[in-house]
Amino acid sequence: MTERQVVLRETRDGVQTLKLNRPDKLNALDFALTEGLVQALKDADADPSIRVVIVTGAGRGFCAGADTREFQVLTPDNQALVERRAALTTELQGLVKQMSKPVIAAVNGYAMGGGCGLALSCDLALAGESARFGYPEVKHGIVAAIVMAGLVEHVGRKAAFDLVATGRTLDAHEARQLGMVNRVVADADLLGEVQALAQELAAHPLQAMQATKGIFHRVTELPFSEGLKIGQQLNAHMRAFRQAESTE
Ligand code: COA
Question: Hey, which family's this protein in (predicted)?
Answer without folding.
Answer: Belongs to the enoyl-CoA hydratase/isomerase family.
